[in-house]
Specification:
Elements (H helix, E strand, L loop, with lengths): L15 H4 L9 E7 L8 H4 L6 H8 L2 E7 L4 H10 L3 H4 L13 H7 L3 E7 L19 H4 L4 E5 L16 E3 L2 E2 L8 H15 L5 E6 L30 H21 L6 E7 L8 E4 L2 E4 L7 H4 E7 L8 E8 L3 H8 L12 H5 L9 E5 L4 H5 L3 E5 L3 E4 L4 E3 L17 H14 L9
Amino acid sequence: MKNAILPVSIILIIISGACQTEKIEQNPNVILIMADDMGYECISSYEGARYSTPVLDSLAANGIRFDQCVSQPLCTPSRVKIMTGLYNYRNYEYFGYLNPNQYTFGNLMQDAGYETLIAGKWQLNGLAYKDSLPEWSDSLSPMKFGFDEYCLWQLTHGKKEGERFANPLIEQNGVLLDRDKDRYGPDVFADYILDFISRNKEKPFFVYYPMVLVHDPFVPTPDSEEWADPKKRYKKDTAYFKDMVAYTDKIVGKIAGKLKDLDIDKNTIVLFTGDNGTHPSIYTPIPDGSIQGGKGNTIDAGTHVPFIAYWPGKIKKGSVYDGLISFSDFFPTLAEIVDRDTETDGQSFYPLLKGEEYNSRETVFVHYDPQWGSRVNQYRNQFVRTIDYKLYRDGLYYNISRDILEKTPLKPDSLTPEEITIQEELKGEMQNHPVLQED
């Protein structure tokens, strides 16, 4: 009898994880929010200010609070620096203007495949120089700087034509929005941002939100009692500053809440800062007294701004970083996030967000030439600083940890050996930059 040929069953087991291409995690979304004229002292988690900022305090408690972020003293110089990562002597030409030949972080993120949006205050078309800058009327300039969409105040229309708060004058993707006396500009921007996030939740996106709050005029918000009377919505009083701070916090809360509702908060980096110090007419009450705003001035109150980074699941909760951060550092940080090589004057702080080893800055250099009126231009200067010491181009040298208002420069014959060493290091750094030219 021949051997029987038995049927053979073949069982093919495919382990899906071993054979399928591993899913690549999407690059993190990034939202950069920059309040207008808000010094560090306005956030209660810094100096215990008596303003209502529960959302920002919560983001700081669950993220990183940066205690030594140094901006430019004025709005446009800060905007040019943060957007390009370059010192002002390289590309700041006029107040309220950014040359179209500049490469911004909008271009960077767009080139990396991100959907991009800018909403809020533009102030970069050169509206004050209509006779010499033909691009002042270019409604497409935000798109040329890398933003797929925009919703902006002060793009091709100046504030004399329409303000930013009640009944705002806002341009959106080439269209001038209808005026509405019951609309509040910050709400228009926030609503557009929320819509943009919802539409792009499946893609990597970058939102740059240079807020119009808390800049003067100091007027009622929709949460102020006076808002109920349309005639009082334009009433100017520094007493409304606290309401504007609270509304800033409320809007940040809406954005953070939207990220959580869409379940994309864990893959979104939220960065919050201010463009320069608080307006000098504002005295912020703190437990030990008050802090006068220093906008326009090179003292600490003019350049010391809040900076909070929030990235749930990535950043260790309640972290505090007391090293120096420069406004030139934001651009290279974004470049590292999207793995792009760039040439900037800054240093990426992305390792800090990931909890990795970081080589802290020793100094920050500031070139400040505002080109905006004699009152502001009186403070034009250059300085290099550490956390505790500050040296100006003219040789004035301060211990700013003891003399925060820079009332008494250190005398050469009273310096300690350590102060002499620091001074020489600051002089060495100053020599790396061109001298600020005389008017």
